[in-house]
Each structure stands twice: as C-alpha cells, then as structure tokens.
Specification:
The complex is a heterodimer of chains A (633) and B (75).
Chain A (H helix, E strand, L loop, with lengths): L8 E5 L4 E5 L3 H7 L2 H12 L13 E4 L14 E6 L6 E6 L3 H7 L4 E5 L6 E6 L2 E6 L8 H11 L6 E4 L2 H4 L7 E3 L3 E3 L4 H7 L2 E7 L9 H17 L1 H9 L4 H8 L20 H7 L1 E5 L9 E4 L1 E3 L2 E3 L8 H6 L9 H14 L3 H16 L18 H12 L4 H5 L3 H8 L9 E2 L2 E2 L9 H9 L21 H5 L16 H20 L14 H12 L5 H21 L30 H15 L10 H6 L6 H4 L1
Parallel strand pairs in A: 1-6, 7-12
Antiparallel strand pairs in A: 1-2, 3-4, 3-6, 4-5, 7-8, 9-10, 9-12, 10-11, 13-14, 15-16, 17-18
Helix pairs in contact in A: 2-21, 7-20, 12-14, 17-19, 19-21, 19-22
Chain B lengths: L1 E6 L3 H4 L4 E5 L4 E2 H7 L7 E6 L2 E3 L4 E2 L3 E7 L5
Parallel strand pairs in B: 1-7
Antiparallel strand pairs in B: 1-2, 3-6, 4-5, 4-7
The chains are: A alpha+beta (633), B mainly beta (75).
Chain lengths: 633, 75
C-alpha cells in the first residue's frame, strides 16, 4: 500500500497514439520523489543529447510529487520539464493552482509525453482512464475559449485544464503553459514544446482523494499553520497586496528595473504600487489548492477601448516591472491588458517584457527603424506599442517573429551592436530582482541550469540579521550566522549552496515558498511532519537535502551533455556596473572578480570540479547517481 | 528635533502604528531610533531619509522623516 503517491506513471506516445502505465517500485519514488528530480531521471535515461527541443524526440513531462494533493497549506505546485527551446538546456517551470492535485486524484503521479501528433489533440484523463482526443477545433483559440469548449464538450465543469494558447502553437520560444487560465509554468518556453507536439491541452478529473498515512496529523498541521498565516504580517501583506507589494520598496529605493535595465529609478513608480493597483484595477483575490494565503489577484478594466477580463488573473510584481517600468510604462490598466494578452496567448510575461524593452532600446538607438517595426513607434513609454508587439510576437508577425525567438537569438540576428542591450543567462531573460542588492540571487541567476530565475533560492534579506527569520528558523540546516545581502564572500556562498538545495526540495515537492520559512510561517519541522504523515516515510531533512542535491547534479549533467560549460554560469554585464539615477546612483556594482571567486568556491562546495563545474564521480556515487558516471568521463 | 518613522509594507501590520514620532535633543543614528522605536532591524531592508538610501549608522542631525521598507523576497 502506498501513501501520498498513486504508483502510476503515465507514458503517452503522441506519434503512435499509444499510452501505457508504469508502476515503479517504492525505492524509485523514495529516490526521485516527483517534480524535476523524477523528470530528469527520464530525460537523462530516454532522451539523446542534442535532441532538437521542438522535435518529437523531446520529452515533455508533467510531474507533481509524492505529497501533492495532501490537503496541507501551500503544497499545490507541480513541475513541467523538457529540453528548453529557449536555453537549449534542462527546461523546467513550476505552477500552482489545482491541476497538480487533480492529476494525483485522477490516479497518476506523472505524465511522460513523447512523439508528436500530426494533427492537434488533447489528453483527457479521468480516474485512471486516458483518451487522446481531437483538438483541431481548438487550435488557434485562446485559453479562455479553449477552456470553455473543453469543459462543455466533456460536460464537466470541475475538470482542470493545463493548456497552451496561440503562442505555444506558434512555437514562440518563451511560450508557457497555463492551468485554470491564471496559473503558469511560466519560464523556459515549455509551451512551445507542447505546441511542437500538437498537444493543445491536458484535461484532468479525479474523484478519488489521495491516500494519506496519517490524516489527523496532516489536518492538525494545517490548522496550526493556517492560524499563524492569518496572524502573520508578511502573509497578511501577501493576501492584501499580493506580490505587487514589493513595487513600493524597489521604486523608492531606485532599484525597480526600468527602461531595459538602464536605470532603477522610475519617477512614475507610485502609479505601479500595490496600493494604486488595489484602488484602480483589483477585482478580487484568489488562491491555490488548500492555501490560506490567497496571494493571487484578479483584475478588471472596463473602459471604452480597453477591457480586461478578470478570468485571466492579474499582473504579479514580475509582470508589473517587465511590461511596465522596464518598457517605460506607468499605466497599470495597460499593464493589466498586456498581462491579459500574454495569458490568453500563453507567453511568459518576464521574457515578453524583456524582449519588447530590448527592441525599444534598439529602436531608440537607431538599430531598429520604423521599417523594421512596420510603422510602430517603438519608444519607451508607448503603451499601445507594447500591446501591438505582444500580438505580433504571439502570432510571429514581422518584428514579432524575430522577438519570438528570445532576446539572445534576436540580438544575434539583428547585429549592429544589439547584443549590448540584452540581459540574459543561458539564453533566458533575467527576472525583475536586481542582484546588486541581493548577491545570493545573483549567484542563483548565474548557476541556474534553466537560466536566470528569481525562484531558484530564498532571497538574501531573510538572512541579514541575527533576528532574521532565516537565521532563527533554519538553524537545523546549519544556518547560524547572518550575512549581508550584498556580500559575495565565503559565508554567502555557503549559505546559498544550502538555500539552492532547500529550494530545490520545495520545487520537487511542489511546495510554495510563500507557505514556509524563511518566506512565511510554516516551519521546517511542520513541513517535514506533513511529508511523513502523507507518505508514511520516516524521512529527515538529511534525506530531503540529498534529494535536492541529487536533482541539481542531474540537471548539471543534462546541461553538460548539451555542451554547457562553466562559461555559461555568468551574470549580465549590467550588474557589474553601478546604478544610474535615483537614490542608489553610483553605488553597488558587483565586483566581477569577487563574483568569479564565489562561483569557483560554490563548485567546490558542491563537489564539482572547480574549473569546469562538472560533478565529480565521487559526488555522483554519494548521491546514488553512479549510473551517470559515464556521462562525465 | 523630531524624527518621524514611516513604516512601509508589512511593517505597518507588525507595529501598533505606521507612523512613529520620536524626539531628540542631539544628533542620533538610525540604529538608535530603530532601537528606541523597538523596530527590529531584521525586518528592514531599505532605510530612506529624504532622497537617500542610508545604512543604520547614518547620523540624523535635524528633524526628518525616516522611511523603513521591509525585507523583500521573490514574487
């Protein structure tokens, strides 16, 4: 009898239209647990190096974890993995919502998809039964329309649907996957992989609750955490203001990414704050499966010529900055519209904002002309131009076709010095947190196997003081002393080695960082208790940290096979320069030499070769990955 | 001199009021006013005095408004 997991992994071959179910042993689950660790097992075993990401040979894997579906706070997430068409390396993205728990209730721990259908299809999974259904009538439709039609034709309004919109169909390299219209596997272009397989959607419905080893213990932990969430100031801030709460601090400090990262000073920042958001566009707050925090927003605009449908949620902080200040836009209503369009078409809002801001700078520098833009005045601050460019990118028209390849490839094709204006790591555009103020985040940007990502570790400020949450609550990991957010020394490197692994465990298990320390009130002991009570496994944080480390090493080897080297572990040049303008003018450049030393030390702490960053055979043996030793010889 | 401490973000939920007023007869560091106001520096990421971002050792020599911004994580 298994608890937490179903014991069923669904394999689907879209080329042959066949599917089968694998029943792995308990030790398999106890080694890989779900999420990216499980996905990477199949990617390393079954995918040949140098597979074209948009070919039928790429695997597309949807993986919740052994605890997904347990009715405990902030564990709603699931992972999608594939080789990324944006980076050419390991691609992954996690999403909240309800889809992951529903897949578990429908009797599957993961779906491994290979091949490609000649015509559009969608998967329908209900209580262990699987159908591959025609989706010709859905191809070309936006996400809202697709969801409405599928629910109607399956005559079940409680079906949960993960799907792509036209951007995924059109193979935009930063297309994403959405469930319930507003929860995204956002980054790495995994929607394009889904589009290349002609897979429009996966509709799931499960009526069987997850079997828990100790239901009472899960319930008790849920009650205790929920009570504290309701009382906690940080959780209240998330509930009342959502992630846009961070805008004010960044804007007032002068580190809100603006005008394609040429400055952090955005003088109209007040227009973008969460307080303005709540007054002008917020309709209601939303949440994910079994979560008491409810940080999600739904926005509505009803003005002549500008309407925004709340079904598509509302802009998060990342979107406000990337489609707002980064493009010189200070009108939240237009940012809400840009967000809605990206969500209808399934495009990552960070990369979308970044490629448009890049094109705007190229236009202002004379590298792109009105002829290139087909008459669009692509200047910073032109909000109509942003909406037009989103349409062009999603449908791959004109300049939009070029930008749909991501800023790295676009800059190479444009030439004329355009490369100076891109800000990316491993081909993925950087998120909206400036590492000059949080150097640990910078280390994670550089080291992330799936390109720059702000969700690759907890952020530095939670460890800045002896009374910080991270220091008080995470001593069990050996985190005992505070470190300055801007430090790049040995203590910072050691801290972020641990945080990278800890966060990787969160990602694998589908845990939302807004639910547990250091970002929230759930303790490490409570999370461990929920894991034990769900699975019946008497696990420890030692075992969990080894799981995280195992997954990081598997990703490292996947990328090594694809040709990545330590030269790809970089930061954009802009962060080695001081801030320009605003309160931080002339301050805070990261020292490049110190940063290089930090990276080298990190390799050593991970048990990797300090020059190449490749895992050593001994490290692989320690982690039970001896089957990968031949890959590093 | 009068120092108005303005608590931003979630700090305003954590302390009884979002504006705290303190009076001093001589120059005082930000560190001291945080201590007097019983605001934990663990909660504070940015400190802004006028248009400047300052550290806790910054010396306030005249009446001023000190804005405190909380720690900011991912999102």
């Amino acid at each position: 009898m298994s608890y937490g997991y179903t014991g069923n992994i669904l394999h689907v071959d879209l080329s042959s239209k066949k599917h089968w179910i694998e029943h792995p042993e308990e030790n398999f689950y106890r080694t890989y647990w779900g999420g990216k660790a499980l996905a990477l097992y199949y990617m390393l075993k079954e995918m040949k190096p140098h597979t074209d990401p948009l070919s039928p040979d790429n695997l597309l894997i949807f993986a919740p974890s052994v605890i997904t579906g347990a009715p405990a706070p902030a564990i709603p997430r699931y992972t999608v993995c594939a080789k990324s068409p944006l980076t050419g390396g390991q691609g992954e993205a996690e999403a909240g919502g309800w889809w992951g728990p529903e897949l578990k209730k429908a009797s599957f721990d993961a779906i491994i998809i290979k091949g490609s259908s000649p015509t559009p299809v969608y998967l329908y999974i209900k209580d262990g039964k699987v159908e591959i259904k025609d989706a010709t009538h859905l191809w070309g439709k936006d996400t809202g329309e697709t969801q409405r039609i599928i629910k109607k034709e399956l005559a079940d309004d409680r079906i949960r649907i993960a799907q792509i919109g036209p951007a995924g169909e059109n193979l935009v390299r930063f297309a994403n996957i959405v469930n319930e219209l507003k929860h995204f596997n956002g980054r790495n272009g995994l929607g394009a992989v889904m589009g290349s397989k002609k897979l429009k959607a996966i509709a799931v419905r499960g009526t069987k609750p997850i079997e828990l080893y100790n239901k009472e213990r899960v319930s008790q932990a849920t009650k205790e955490i929920t009570k504290r969430v309701m009382d906690n100031p940080l959780s209240r801030d998330l509930r009342e203001l959502g992630t846009p709460a961070v805008v004010r601090g960044f804007y007032e400090a002068g580190c809100l990414p603006s005008y394609n990262w040429t400055t952090g000073y955005f003088k109209e920042g007040e227009n973008l704050t969460a307080e303005t958001y709540n007054k002008t566009i917020l309709k209601e707050t939303k949440g994910c499966f079994a979560c008491p925090i409810r940080c999600k927003r739904a926005v509505e605009v009803n003005e002549p010529g500008l309407k925004v449908d709340p079904s598509y949620g509302g802009p998060e902080y990342e979107t406000i900055a990337s489609l707002g200040s980064l493009c010189g836009i200070s009108d939240l209503k237009y940012i809400a519209k840009a967000n809605e369009l990206c969500n209808k078409y399934t495009m990552d809002t960070i990369s979308t904002g970044m490629v448009i801001a890049f094109a705007m700078q190229c236009y202002e520098e004379g590298i792109l002309t009105k002829e290139d833009t087909e008459g669009i005045e692509l200047t910073f601050g032109n909000k109509e131009a942003v909406l037009k460019m989103i349409e062009k990118i999603a449908h791959r028209e004109g300049l939009g076709d070029l930008l749909s390849q991501g800023s790295y490839l676009a800059a190479q094709k444009i030439g004329k010095g355009a490369e100076k204006f891109i800000h990316q790591v491993k081909g993925q555009e950087i998120p909206m947190h400036d590492p000059r103020l949080k150097t640990g985040v910078g280390l994670q940007y550089a080291l992330s196997d799936y390109g720059a990502d702000h969700m690759k570790a907890a952020h530095d400020p939670f460890f800045k003081d002896k009374d910080s949450v991270g220091i008080k609550e995470m001593k069990g990991l050996g985190i005992l002393e505070p470190v300055s957010p801007t430090d790049t020394g040995e203590k910072k490197v050691t801290l972020f080695k641990l945080l990278d692994i800890y966060w990787t465990v969160f990602d694998i298990l589908g845990v939302c960082d807004f639910g547990y320390v250091p970002r929230s009130v759930g303790t490490m002991e409570e999370l461990l208790g929920i894991i034990c009570a769900t699975t019946g496994w008497r696990t420890t944080w030692f075992e969990l940290m080894k799981l995280g480390e195992r997954s990081i090493n598997m990703a490292r080897i996947f990328n090594y096979r694809e040709g990545f080297t330590s030269k790809d572990d970089t930061l954009p040049e802009v962060f080695y320069k001081d801030f320009k303008g605003g309160p931080l003018d002339g301050l805070r450049a990261i020292n490049k030499e110190d940063f290089q030393k930090a990276l080298r030390l990190r390799y050593q702490l991970m048990g990797w070769d300090p020059d190449t960053g490749i895992p050593t055979p001994a490290k692989l043996i320690e982690l039970g990955l001896d089957w990968l030793i031949d890959e590093v010889k | 001199m009068k120092i108005n401490i303005v608590l931003e973000g979630y700090l305003k939920y954590k302390y009884p009021s979002n504006i705290l007023e303190l009076n001093y007869s001589k120059p005082v560091t930000v560190y001291k006013i945080l201590e007097d106001a019983k605001v934990s520096s663990a909660d504070v990421f940015f400190i802004k005095v006028g248009d400047l971002i300052v550290k806790e050792d910054y010396l306030l020599t005249k009446s001023n408004e000190v804005k405190l911004f909380p720690i900011i994580g991912g999102g």
